[in-house]
Amino acid sequence: MADKSGTSRVSKLKSIGFRKTVHFVMCLYLLVPFFVKLSAFRLNPLLFYAITATAASLIYAAQVKRPIFADALFDAMATTRQNVIQQISKSAPNVKDQIRALDDGISRIEKSVKDFVDQMERDYERRGGYLGMFMGAAGVLMSQAFTGNYVFYGILSVMLYDTMSAVGGVMLGHVRIPFTNSTVEGALIGAVSLAVPLLILNGFNLGILAVPATAIISEAYGIEDNFTIPVTTSLVSMALGLRVL
């Protein structure tokens, strides 16, 4: 039983590792206005996030209205390959076995690639589009509109807390937060991961812990954490008067 449990955790960790790597990279992109002079491109942070949210909404709408591109592509490839094999088998029956062996090899490669893609997508994203990406972009846009540069703390929160709480929950999680799928262990790991850079940027101040506490509540009880975390933590950071970058 212990071996099965350990194997399950490793499998879940590999799966969430792919998704959270993509999540982390996308959050780094959202920090571009703090490290790049946007005025050189005739942009400002609000316009930058508005363009990002618009692009995310178009991708989301495309995924909702049609099957996932990868699934459609793999299905089309498999159908085409089978048709080609049938034609070759009819015209050159002496190489039929070799063609079948080649087909099996290609099928295994396709399955490996498809499994990799599937690991990077949440189940609800496969059904309804890239909801997390769209909601994250929308949440950051609203945070910028409401709090200005305090959006930095909202992005930092969704980047660090969301990533580390998920990984920590898979690795060590046992105790569930009431009425949620989040774990206490994952929440604590995420909170510490967020609190450390906050303290480095703002100095020792216990009030800062309100930001990771807000992230915990938003992730556990929010409808969509990619939206609620940046909005709520940006507002709390502004209320606390944290250092504006």
Structure description:
With 245 residues, this protein is an all-alpha fold. It folds into 2 domains: 177 residues, no CATH class; 52 residues. The chain has 10 helices and no strands. The mean pLDDT is 85.
Q: How would you sum up this structure in a few lines?
A:
With 245 residues, the chain is mostly helical. The chain has ten helices and no strands.
Number of domains as seen in the coordinates = 2
From the helix content, strand content and strand pairing, which structural class follows? mainly alpha
Low-confidence segments:
none
Q: Count the helices. How many?
A: 10
The helix-strand sequence is: HHHHHHHHHH
Radius of gyration: 23 Å
Largest sheet: none
Backbone shape:
elongated
| Proportion of helical residues | over 70%
Strand content: under 5%
Find the count of extended strands (DSSP E, 2+ residues). Answer: 0
